[in-house]
C-alpha cells in the first residue's frame, strides 16, 4: 500500500470529556469519529465547548509506522497525538516524530509561533491529521507548574492559562480591576506581574494580599459600581459567580464607557448551561470565547486592545 492522502471537506471538533453533550448540541449534525472527536462537513461552525478545533483535516492511508511518521514530517515539524484507538501503534508513530515539550510550564510563558498539528488513528492504516488547529497547545492541553503555597486558591491557574493563550499580560505599573476577587487567586497573579490591582468583592481577600501595597480593596458588589466610579483601567478581569446575561450587561456598560482596554472574564454556567450568551460575547469585535484547560463548567471571554507594537 502506498501513502495516499485526501483533504476532508469539513472540520474536526475535539470535545471535552465531561462536556461532550454541550458540543453535540452546538454541532447539531455531525459524524462521531471516536473519543472526543467529531467531524462536521462544510465551513467551521461556531462552537465553544472544545479543547481544540482541527481546521484543515487530511485523511492519510499508509502501510507502515515509518510511512505514517514520514507523511506527517513532510508536512511540518510539530505534531501531537489525540488517540482513542490503536494506542500502541500511535505511540510508535509519535516516537518517530520530532519531540514536543509536554512538561508543565512556568508562568509567564510565550507560546511559540510555530503551528501545532494534531493527529489520530482511525485504524491500523488510516489516520486523520490537521497541521492547523485552533489551540496552540499540544492536543489542546497545557499545564503550569503549580505553586501550592502562595496563591490563596487554585483559580490562579485559570488566569495564567488565559493570559498565555492571549499572548499578552499586564505589565508592571498597569492598572487592573479584579471583580469578584475573593479570596484573591487572580489578584495574586497580577501582583506577581507587578500590576496595580483594584480588587472588588463583598468579602475580603487573603490577609497577605490585603497587606500588599499593590492592592486596593473595595468592599462592594462590582456589578453595582459604574465604570466612572472606578476610572480607566488597562485590564478588566472578572471571575464573578453570576448568570451569564448579568455579566454581559455589566460588560456592555464598560465597553460603552471606553474606560477599559483589555478584558478577561469567566462566563460561569448554571444548570444545563447557557448557549446563547457566549454567542453574544463572541460577537463583540475583537473577542474570542474559549474553554480553557483549567475551566470547569464555564467559558472564558478574552478581548484585547489592538497591539501598539
Automatic annotation (TrEMBL):
Lineage: superkingdom: Bacteria
Pfam families reported in the protein's UniProt record: FtsJ
Alphabetized GO MF terms: methyltransferase activity
Xref: SUPFAM superfamilies: S-adenosyl-L-methionine-dependent methyltransferases
Domain Ribosomal RNA methyltransferase FtsJ: 153-241
Listed GO biological process terms: methylation
InterPro entries noted in UniProt: RNA_MeTrfase_FtsJ_dom, SAM-dependent_MTases_sf
Protein name from the UniProt record: Ribosomal RNA methyltransferase FtsJ domain-containing protein
Organism encoding this protein: Gracilinema caldarium
